[in-house]
Design brief:
Blueprint (H helix, E strand, L loop, with lengths): L8 E3 L2 E3 L42 H8 L13 H10 L13 H20 L1
Antiparallel strand pairs: 1-2
Length: 123
């Protein structure tokens, strides 16, 4: 058996750190692979003015930007472009799940409410 460490690879008989990224697929091989045999894709950054990651764009995000920690467009600078993105999305919710009633709960309400009203009429 050949020992190996997950997250590191061998290239030209030396241990190499390939990338600081999210791994989508893992392939275990008994042969050394060349860089051409790897697929590296860069995911484009998404403009995100929700600097405190609480699911909305609000005044707290503005304070974060004002303190120099709000880089909405991932250009490495906190500037007017980031403020413009915050201003355009102010008051919006980002990535917040909304509650959808379950069918079982709906059927319960449909059956229970008429039963309850009939019961009151009988008294």
């Amino acid at each position: 058996p050949t020992p190996f460490t997950i997250g590191r690879g061998m290239f030209n008989n030396g241990v190499t750190d390939w990338s600081d990224a999210i791994i989508d697929e893992v392939r275990i091989s008994d042969a050394a692979l060349s860089p051409a045999e790897f697929l590296f894709e860069t995911v484009p950054a998404v403009d995100n003015p929700d600097f405190d990651d609480d699911g909305d764009v609000d005044g707290f995000d503005f304070l974060t930007w004002q303190r120099g920690a709000g880089d909405a467009n991932n250009d490495g600078m906190v500037d007017a472009a980031d403020f413009a993105l915050w201003e355009a999305q102010f008051g919006t919710l980002g990535g917040v799940a909304t509650a959808v009633p379950e069918p079982a709960g709906t059927w319960f309400a449909v059956g229970f409410i008429p039963w309850l009203t009939r019961r009151r009429r009988c008294r």
